[in-house]
Design goal:
With 431 residues, this protein is of the alpha/beta class. Helices cover 31% and strands 26% of the residues. 52% of the residues are buried. Bound molecules: ligand EPZ.
Length: 431
């Protein structure tokens, strides 16, 4: 397994190009299954999660063609997807266990073909990650669902029908799955307490471009009037707010200055508010955000993760790394996932002063210096927080299990190197 080696102490300066959003790309790729016609998706990030999902779609029978394309100043991927007739309606365990977002084939395949077999993803490092909302909503729309040998076996006789559905949690995944299912259902579906993340609005705009009738984007009530057929489209996905937020912290923690090209400040209101409270200057430009922490004191601030537009759980670990070297104490509360503090013991091995209270709150008392150590983590965002700690730690930090980072951060070492970090990938074969 590859490792990342970082020698801490460099101030980061320059431009970072923000890539297409992973968590938008995944449902949007699956939405192409809703039409017999080909669709082209632009601005896809070059990530292992996209590769994994493409393999699953190929197994279903999708013809995929890809090319690299210069878009908005940097190299991106464009793929076209065409599924005129699926060869399989099964999402096998081997695919789903590698990437749980494989469950986004559930809504499209069921609504279009009346049958799907999806391996249940089970829990992961950050929590139990249930699918009850996805399944009970589909049942309300007329699906018959059985769990057998670890698989969801879902069937519908004819078309799914519209329903009035209220989610008990504003789940991103369930909102995407039910939007896609309802787009081809008979009649009107209303989702109450839907997720409002920007990724949902992007999926809605793609579905509406395909001919769907969805109202209520950016609100918690979505109304979907089912249509009989959707057509192919060309869609460019939004940029990754979590990647942008992660590099914003890199600027802050190294007392540097980074211009985050293609970052959308509208999607980052809450993290920007927190950075400003910390004492960092954030300038919003038409096509970028400049995060300037040169000559400024970093002050501890409390963070409380919440559904959008609240502070994103996917930036909690990165901001905690920042609080580790900020003045005073910060309280970090994780409200979305029940086990998303796995980075804490590793940060503490680097000298951070953190006390965990229960499973949801941690008090971080800022220290003057972190010291380098070999560290590892169990999920994507936690791994990035260890890279951040490594950027300011004294000495050489090695972050193990780089495959987590490769799932969600495109060209991480290249982007960091270009702005002055002393960072290097050690390939397994080099050891
Ligand atoms: C998405 O996961 C993201 N993943 C996650 O990002 C992100 O942390 C999460 O949304 C919250 O923003 C992708 O988009 C691929 P949820 P998802 O369903 O959709 C509860 C990353 O690092 N819930 O919104 O799986 C659940 O337990 C990843 O990029 C149910 O109770 O999350 C949680 O408390 C990690 N029953 C809350 O809802 C359900 O059926 C939100 O989960 C579904 C969810």
């Amino acid at each position: 397994m590859d490792k990342i080696k970082i020698v801490g102490g460099n101030q980061l300066r320059g431009k970072v190009y923000i890539s297409g959003a992973k968590n938008t790309a995944l449902p949007i790729i699956c939405a192409t299954l809703l039409s017999d016609e080909p669709s082209t998706i632009r601005n896809l990030p070059i990530l292992s999660d996209i590769k994994s999902l493409n393999l699953l779609l190929e197994q279903i029978g999708t013809k995929i063609e890809g090319k690299q394309e210069e878009l908005n100043g940097h190299t991106t991927q464009t793929f076209s997807y065409h599924t005129p007739k699926p060869e399989s309606l099964v999402a096998p365990y081997d695919y789903v266990r590698k990437m749980r977002a494989s469950y986004y084939v559930l809504g499209p395949l069921l609504t279009k073909y009346g049958h799907v077999e999806l391996s249940l993803p089970g829990g992961c490092a950050i929590g139990a990650r249930p699918m009850d909302i996805h399944l009970s909503s589909l049942e309300q729309m007329g699906a018959e669902i059985e769990i057998k040998n670890g698989y969801v076996m879902a069937d519908v006789n004819g078309r799914l029908h519209g329903a009035n559905i209220t989610f008990h949690s504003a789940s991103v995944g369930a909102t995407c799955n039910i939007l896609m299912a309802a787009a081809l259902a008979e009649g009107v579906t209303v989702i109450e307490n839907a997720a409002k993340e920007p990724e949902i609005a992007d999926l809605i705009s793609m579905l509406n471009e395909m001919g769907a009738k969805i109202e209520g984007a950016n609100t918690s009530t979505l109304t979907i009037t089912g249509v009989e057929k959707l057509h192919g489209v060309t869609h460019e996905i939004i940029n990754d707010r979590i990647e942008a937020g992660s590099y914003a912290v890199a600027a802050a923690i190294t007392h540097g200055c980074l211009e985050l090209i293609n970052a959308n400040a509208e999607h980052l209101q809450s993290p920007i508010d927190i950075l400003r409270k910390v004492g960092v200057k954030v300038e919003i430009r038409p096509n970028s955000i400049v995060v300037d922490a040169r000559n400024c004191e970093l002050n501890g601030v409390d963070i409380y993760t919440d559904y959008y537009p609240g502070f994103p759980t996917d930036l909690q670990a990165q901001f905690m790394a920042l609080m580790c070297v900020a003045n005073g104490a910060s309280m970090v509360t994780e409200n979305i996932w029940e086990n998303r503090f796995m980075h804490i013991p590793e940060l503490m091995r680097m000298g951070a002063n953190i006390n965990v209270h229960g499973h949801a709150s941690a008090i971080v008392r800022g220290v003057k210096k972190l010291s380098a150590a070999p560290v590892m983590s169990t999920d994507l965002r936690a791994s990035f927080s260890l890279v951040l700690a490594g950027l300011v730690a004294e000495g050489e930090t090695t972050v193990n299990r780089v495959y987590h980072l490769d799932r969600g951060y495109e060209a991480l070492e290249e982007k960091f190197k270009a702005v002055g970090a002393n960072i290097e990938r050690i390939k397994e074969s080099d050891e």
